[in-house]
Amino acid sequence: MRRVGEAAAGGGWSLVVPLKPLSLAKSRLAEAAGAGLRSGLALAFAQDTVAAALGCADVRDVLVVTDDPLARAELSALGARTLPDTPGAGLNAALAHGARWVRGERPEARVAALNADLPALRPAELARVLAAAGAFPRTFLADAAGIGTTFLAAAHGVDLAPAFGGHSRDRHRASGAREILLHGVESVRRDVDTREDFLAALALGVGPGTAAATVPAGLR
């Protein structure tokens, strides 16, 4: 697996991945997996998401915004950088904080927000989405349900202006972001909130962390 230090200097995208404290994450999976297992699933989803993102040649680095110490340790071990969620004001504030931090370090950065719950993510499909994003100042990709958003990108000098949550597809479109309309990038759309989402991700083929966590959760 390519780590951050092995990325091409000066080029590529910086991805910002937000992650709640694991004890609070994936609450809608508690009924299916049990409260004691959902935090492990949330970590596994994030591990597979980050590993796949770092395996994409167009990704320079991945910054995970989280206050969870276990997640920081595990995702740092994969090669991600981590940043505390100092705003503590929800998903969009965390993403804006991460984007500002990236550009404080690298003002010319192309920045993209990526959900942490994409356990079937394929590097090649992410590369196609990033290539499409590079053609416009600000772009987004809707989730598999066509309601939310899994990816939002901003070119150099453009504010990310995240508006995730609920019907974010409509909000991002109304904000002037160009919607990415690609076929064959299902792994970048397939976030997981419910048992049905998880089964759909399993059908695509999940990463090793999620595959291992699935057995005790009994969700196959």
Task: Write a structural description.
The chain is of the alpha/beta class and 220 residues long. The chain has a single domain (4-212), classed as Spore Coat Polysaccharide Biosynthesis Protein SpsA, Chain A. Helices cover 41% and strands 15% of the residues. It has a 7-stranded mixed sheet with strand order 3-2-1-4-6-5-7, sandwiched between helices. Strand 2 (59-65), helix 3 and strand 3 (81-83) form a beta-alpha-beta unit. Helix 2 runs parallel beside helix 3 and helix 2 packs antiparallel against helix 9 (208-217). It is globular and about 45 Å long. The two termini are 27 Å apart. Residues 1-10 have low confidence and may be disordered.
Chain-wise SSE layout:
Blueprint: E1 13-18, H1 30-33, H2 35-54, E2 59-65, H3 69-78, E3 81-83, H4 91-105, E4 110-114, H5 123-133, E5 138-142, E6 149-154, H6 168-174, E7 178-179, H7 186-189, H8 195-204, H9 208-217
Parallel strand pairs: 1-2, 1-4, 2-3, 5-7
Antiparallel strand pairs: 4-6, 5-6
